[in-house]
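Curious: why these numbers?
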Amino acid sequence: MSSHIHLIISTENGNLSDIMRDLKRHTAKAILKEMEENIQESRRDWMLWMFKRAGQRNINNEVYQFWQQNNHPVQLSTNQMMKQRLNYLHHNPVESGSVEYPPEYLYSSAKDYYSEQKGLVPVILLS
């Protein structure tokens, strides 16, 4: 999705809040760096201005705010809940009109589940 991300994550050792914090920090820095260095991106100045303006509204930021500060975690305590959420994740791009079939969305694990092909991001399949 162009405006948000859905994840199913777990950890054996560690705190999920720490993992999300580090994931957001790392990806925000990498994406902002790419944006700053890509002079061919026609929306670059506007996007950086928007992220900087958002960053000024929150004292936790150094300059920019790329991700929202909050998350919407849902504990998946049963296999049924996990399957329901996985189905929701895979069909979200279809519902938004981005694609007609879940595996067509480039940044989804749906390809791994719907076919013998592998998607862009390595996944551990849920059974």
In short: The chain has a mean pLDDT of 90.
